[in-house]
Amino acid sequence: MITYEVYEQEIQKGNVKKGYVFCGLDEELIKDGINLIIKREVAEEVKELNLIKIDGMNTSFDDIMNACETMPFMGEKKVVIVYRASFLQDKSDSSGTKIYNNIKDYVLNLPPYTILIMYYLLSDKRDRPNKNKKLTTLGKTLPIVHCDKLKKDKYLKKVSDIFKEKGKQIGRVELSYFCEKVPNNFDIIKREADKLISYCDSREIKKEDINLLISNSNEDDIFDLVELIAIKKVDKAIDIMKEILYKSDQHMLIISAIQKHFLRLYEMKCKLIKGKKVEDFMVEYRLPQFVCEKLVTQTNRFTEKQLAELIRLCVKTETKLKSTGIEKSMEMEFLLINTLTVKK
């Protein structure tokens, strides 16, 4: 199994194999990796004929084999992409297992003119491809590319290239700040870049623009966590809590952020009762409309009494965290479990 960086270096050297299996959480990063091969091996004028894409969730082995066996048209190579190939997941149904077993044997003797690329998406951050026995077996024949987080320099360059491809320059300071604010997910990064470019139009991008349009990734995590509390899915809320702590092992800052979020929801709840609208919150909190709309929707999931009690729970937990000899992560989990006892 190789990293995205190693794979990229190999392609740049012209060392292209007969096939690849990609896996990861970030589908856009996987697609970017696949495009490196397409640009190198398939001429633009014959792309429609020599580039075949197959839905891996709705296919058969015969579909894949027939695509691979067909000769390329006016070119030396053709690329066959099987996207979202669910049959590569460690656990699959009988149909998926049958496809995998056939593919496992078939890739041993791929036609010399075909590059077969397959990929599947990991279910979450705890899904480890090196534990997948199917990949271990396929890895003896095809390179397995794990598209995990890029190293800082590579990450910054790739994000910078996204702005350049869209015809927009971004300063080094602003680029670093942008990367700190957005989640490490290229689908989200591209959408946030589009938003910034449209907003700034012909002028240069400033930090103030980034602050206005993009919330902190931690803020998004806190929003998701509170949403799970609202629908009583505490087990999933605990998973998100662990991910937040993994990224930033600062319990006091996180409990403070949760408390602050509940306080804002409480304020908005009181003001909504008095007749305030989304437009009023946009002015008061200096937030974009879509952010205020999300907050109002979440506010409506709680009663005023619930929000007051949730704030009290946060204060109580914060006090405990300041004590010595406390298992902080456990206290944070207790907080989430105790939210189940909060009545409307």
Describe what this molecule looks like in 3D.
This protein is of the alpha/beta class and 344 residues long. It has three domains: 2-147, 3-Layer(aba) Sandwich (Rossmann fold), CATH 3.40.50.300; 152-213, Helicase, Ruva Protein, domain 3, CATH 1.10.8; 217-341, Up-down Bundle (Zinc Finger, Delta Prime, domain 3). It contains 17 helices and six strands. The chain has a six-stranded parallel sheet with strand order 1-6-2-5-4-3, with helices on both faces. Helix 4 links the parallel strand 3 and strand 4. Helix 13 packs antiparallel against helix 16 (304-321). It is globular and about 70 Å long. It starts with a strand and ends in a 6-residue tail after the last helix.
List keywords for this structure.
344 residues; alpha/beta; Rossmann fold; Helicase, Ruva Protein, domain 3; 3 domains; 6-stranded parallel β-sheet; 17 helices; DNA_polIII_delta; DNA-directed DNA polymerase activity; DNA binding
